[in-house]
Amino acid sequence: MILQLLALATLPHQTVNTPVPTEMAGYLIVPHERVDRKYNAGFSMYVAAWPLQQSYPGNAFQSGLFGTWMFPQFEGEGPKDHYTDIEGGLGWWRDTRFATETPKFIMGGVTLNFAEWANGPGAGKGRDWKNPTGLYGVAQLSPWVIWPPDGLNLKQGTRGELFGYGYLPLPLTEPKSQTAGKPVPTGNHAWTLFLNTENFKGPVAFFTPYFWSKASAENPALAGLFLDSRPSEPNRAVQMETQHVPAMVSAAADGTMYARIAPTHFPGAAQGEAPLIHRMTVYDKSALWNSVERWFQGGPAVNGGIGASSLAMHTFKGGGYSTWRIYIPGQPRDQAAEVDWAAYAKPVALDELTYGIEWNRSVLGQSAPQDGMWTLPEFYRLVKTDSGKQVWKAVDVFEVPRETGLRQAQFPKPQRITEPYITPTEADSTWKKPGPVAGPFTRTLGDGSEITYSWYRFADQPALMNADLTPAEREQLQRRVVLLHRSWNRSRNYLPAPTVGKLASIDPALVVSPPPGLEAGYVPIVTRQGLRGR
Questions:
Q1: How many contiguous H segments (helices) and E segments (strands) does the chain have?
Q2: Could you read off the pLDDT of 335-363 as tens digits, one per residue?
Q3: Residue 195 CA: distances (Å) to CA of 233, 430, 439, 445
Q4: Lowest model confidence (mean pLDDT) among 30-44, 333-347, 411-425, 499-513
Q5: How far are the Cα atoms of 142, 157, 268, 485, 527 from residue 204, in angstroms, in the given order?
Q6: Which DSSP state fits 242?
Q7: Using 50, 70 and 90 to split pLDDT, how confident is the model at 22?
Q8: I need a surface site. Which of 9, 20, 303, 337 has the fewest CB within 10 A?
Q9: Per-residue pLDDT tens for 463-495?
Q10: Is-contact 46 278, C-beta < 8 A?
């Protein structure tokens, strides 16, 4: 392909080239101050949610928005070749089937070296229920939110509002001395996703402890090394990871390389700068764990509120950088030139708890954000700096020679995956035995898909039927969750509330009320997601 590009540069000026498809990818790095390692019982944060692409470009597109990676905490150096964490967050993925410009949220728990991962109730690595690598890794906790297997939908049209989320452990189960019949332990950390959005607040779902400890049953040397029993490392990286933004490159008659990226947006504000990350918070076990544990043992009820003495917040001083590169096909990827991001984006601390970007309006060619969005420069020229380093420098469209073909080129129409998600239908499967107590019901989501869901008794949901729990252990779990359902509502602030910006909303179609008689101890479980009538 590189030979093709070099050949294009030798064509006569009047010849219009055919640009070569490629991608822009990399990270936006966010520095922040460290906190005391004693705050090792989870985190929360607010991140901006917005349409990164002007129009959804298809399933090749993959990018997260700002997010983090929560690893187990170890005393001293951790074990080698032992990757396991909770990542996920807001974004778009190549296996997203019903994507729109609006991002979705996935949980993204990863077991040993990506052998399995779990993205939410009924969602994980692959879609093969005969080999469910992570598909049973997350249990539904909330009776008020439906979780689609394609990811948790945000309200369509979200444009820069703040999405609050985090994970805290709850002692929903008891520690076990045996796992899957093997003499290795399973801890009782049920890492639980909490949300703070405009139309829902509170716990939604949790990773079953067995999701983590399962690898220990297969290799006892791994016992005690996963998040079922380990605390969380509070000092985590915060970045925006982009794996593919559509781009194209072409050579001018003089051999100069030019590039074009698909229209890419970031949040803006009419005055000042829009917050991108806010209130990065970490917790100790006095935040929820200690009081909930006493409650489950017969102590006073807990309302789910978190006191200021149980947490710490990371602070920002500004700074940060981009590793975004535009790749020339055929060229070694490690030699690809970076985008001159700093020419138009300056990372800043809007206050000590809020991170944003100060935009160079002259380079962007905009005096103010349009409809709440800044549009990044679309055209670039490959230039050599005084130090000899090559970078992609933003240029105006009129600086791009016509013979490159980039001015008039069109990005291809998006290719979409629309295959439905279908859960097991066999009569002896855990989806049918014991099975639901009410339903099925259907709802149409903002992404155009239709979900079918039913109400299950909490302890009888498929994830818990596959969580290495005895009937007695599931009944104990059922009693504890009934307490939660009766005492914790969906409108109280659990996470510390934001002090800037506006809260995002999840798709209103995902917010439900339990049927009469099923208000406590029952949860909605999606059994199918697909296009209506297909």
A1: 6, 31
A2: 999 999 999 999 999 999 999 999 999 99
A3: 20, 28, 26, 19
A4: 411-425
A5: 5, 23, 30, 11, 18
A6: E
A7: very high
A8: 303
A9: 999 999 999 999 999 999 999 999 999 999 999
A10: yes
Mean pLDDT over 140-164 rounds to 98
* Side-by-side strand order, sheet with 109-110: 85-86, 109-110, 117-120, 123-124
Helix, coil or strand: residue 383 = strand
**What percentage of residues in the chain have a pLDDT greater than 90?**
91
Distance CA 18, CA 250 (A): 7
Phi, psi (degrees; rounded to nearest 5) at 123: -135, 135
Is residue 429's pLDDT more than 80? yes
Partners of residue 106 on adjacent β-strands: 89
Answer yes or no: is pLDDT of 1 > 90. no
Token code pair at residue 354: 């809020």
455: nearest Cα among 144, 223, 27, 86: 144
| DSSP conformation class of 38 | T
Residue type, 368: A
Phi/psi at 203 (5° precision): -75, 145
Q: How far apart are the first and last CA of the chain?
A: 40
Please, are residues 129 and 135 in contact by the beta-carbon 8 Å criterion? Answer: yes
Q: Specify the pairing of strand 109-110 against strand 104-106.
A: unpaired
How many Cα atoms within 13 Å fall on the side-chain side of residue 55? 7
Between CA 261 and CA 22 the distance in angstroms is 9
Residue 516, CA distances (Å) to 12, 315, 453, 512 in order:
75, 46, 16, 12
Task: Tell me how far apart the alpha carbons of residues 344 and 354 are, in angstroms, rounded to a whole number.
Answer: 20
Angle at 394 between CA 388 and CA 396, to 5 degrees: 135
Q: Per-residue confidence at 13, pLDDT binned at 50, 70, 90? A: very low
Q: Can you point out the beta strands (E) in 79-175?
A: 85-86, 89-92, 104-106, 109-110, 117-120, 123-124, 138-140, 152-153, 161-170
The mean predicted confidence, pLDDT, of the chain is 95
- DSSP class of residue 288 equals T
- Model confidence band, residue 63 (pLDDT cutoffs 50, 70, 90): very high
State the CB neighbour count (10 A cutoff) for residue 177.
Answer: 8
What pLDDT is stored for residue 282 in this prediction? 98
Residue 513: helix, strand or coil by DSSP? coil
Q: Are strands 123-124 and 117-120 parallel, antiparallel or unpaired?
A: antiparallel
One-letter amino acid identity for 494?
Y
Identify the pLDDT of residue 123.
96
Q: Which residues contact 71 (CB under 8 A, 6 or more apart)?
A: 78, 84, 85, 232, 233, 236
CA 6 to chain centre: 39
Structure tokens that stand for 283 in this block: 């917790």
